[in-house]
Amino acid sequence: MSARTRLAIAAAILVLGWWLSRTVRHWVAYVDTNPARLGFEMLGIEIGLAALAIAIACALPGAIPRQLGLARSRLPFGAVIALTIGTLGLSHAVEAMIALWSAPALEHSVATGIARGLDAARGRDFAIAFVGTVLGPAIGEELFCRGLLQRGLARWTGPAAAIAIAAVVFGWLHQELVHGTIAALIGLYLGVAAYWSDSTRPAIAGHAANNFMALLGSAGFIGAMLPPVPALIAGTAVAVLGLVWAHRAWRLRPRGDVPPADPALQPGGSPADA
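Above: the chain's sequence. Below: its structure in token form.
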């Protein structure tokens, strides 16, 4: 495919994504509950972000799945589950840390506002909220941050810097200090998961699991988390155990079992390998 054709397709994806984003966000006018409004608003934003990531990946040389890291994980299923559970632990630990540092800051944050907006979501409202606040962010934000951005930067800066930069951008996307701090710290964890697995899929799974648990809590299906100090200790322990399990699987995995999707992102890889 020529460069001109790739750019034309990328432009078409951007236009379609912009139209879909505006259309979905306009649906807010046709619902009368906070969970549904919030779901449509967030879904529209995430459609636009996903379209941007796909369009840029299309404009770049190479296959879109390779650019976005959509190949299957190089980690075994158990390690991916460990990282997903670890993401949940880290999320609780970070929120507990912020609550200990400044409870009023957490109380007045966007994260708390979203939780209140999803209060007692049921039936249709819960379904809309699930698509908009769980699936939408997990796919849109991970395709852009851990897929396009982190994988692209790793070719030039190395994996550690790429993970850190993608996490900072992930935090910035949330447009508020407390919510952004929570997102950035979780983004570091998701970035490691994406790097070790050479795939965006585990990051999508961890992100979706975290947002789904938050939705269940906001809707009243599960109780509140532990008090701050026990939550900080328990959450940190779960996150560390997930990393240890996944790291062991990464180190022990036979290196020749799956062809590398991107040599620059493999253990010991460098831009010269690409």
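The chain has eleven helices and no strands.
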